[in-house]
Design brief:
It is a single chain. 24% of the residues are buried. The chain is built from 3 helices and 13 strands; from the N terminus they run αβαβββββββββββαβ. With 200 residues, the chain is α+β, with helices and mostly antiparallel strands.
Length: 200
């Protein structure tokens, strides 16, 4: 009986070690919505445009590469190049954390979209402006209020900005791939904010 108990205990402990080892290896970063950040509030106060902000923490920043980009769709078709993209990595620090997000700066005759991450910002890119009366626009976060663990090599949708084809705009489940496809098909303009972390 004692021998069986010892064997069972040993197997249980080894299993826990293996599981916890896999979890630590797979979860390379965490991200969460930060809609009330100082960055976002500054944009609102200065009436600069719109900012969609996240708290981002990258473990093993000295061994990984972060890719953040905005896929652009017009009338249901994907544009050949991302609206904006940001790629950085191999930090001198083991852990990097800070703000990451996507902003739209409004001017009189155009708009500029830009990406930013801890200690790095992409050059703002021009965004076509719809001049039609009654066009609705909106932003939806693809992740909830809870912190999300990011796995190495996986692509994640963080959020979507879109402009409607008419005088109304509906909501979609951005965790459902078919719903995302429907949104791209339904709306005039769709921007998808995505992230992927790789080991290089």
């Amino acid at each position: 009986m004692k021998k069986n108990y010892f064997t069972f205990s040993l197997i249980s402990i080894l299993s826990l070690i293996i599981i916890s080892g896999c979890t630590n290896k797979d979860s390379i970063a965490t991200i969460s919505v930060n809609s009330d950040s100082e960055h976002t509030n500054t944009f609102k106060k200065l009436n600069l445009g719109e900012l969609y902000d996240f708290d981002f923490k990258l473990n093993n920043a000295d061994k990984t590469w972060v890719n953040v980009w905005i896929e652009s769709y017009k009338d249901g078709k994907q544009e050949p190049q991302p609206l904006a993209e940001l790629s950085y990595g191999k930090s001198p620090n083991k852990v990097e954390e800070g703000n990451l997000g996507f902003g739209i700066i409004n001017t009189n005759d155009t708009r500029l979209g830009f990406l930013y991450a801890p200690n790095v910002t992409a050059t703002p890119q021009k965004i076509d402006k719809i001049h039609s009366v009654g066009v609705f626009s909106g932003w939806d976060y693809a992740i909830g209020e809870d912190t999300v663990e990011l796995i190495l090599g996986e692509t994640y949708l963080l959020g979507a900005y879109r402009e409607s084809n008419g005088n109304s705009i509906r909501t979609y489940n951005l965790q459902d791939e078919n719903e995302v496809k429907k949104m791209i098909s339904d709306d005039k303009i769709v921007f998808l904010l995505k992230i992927k972390i790789e080991e290089k």
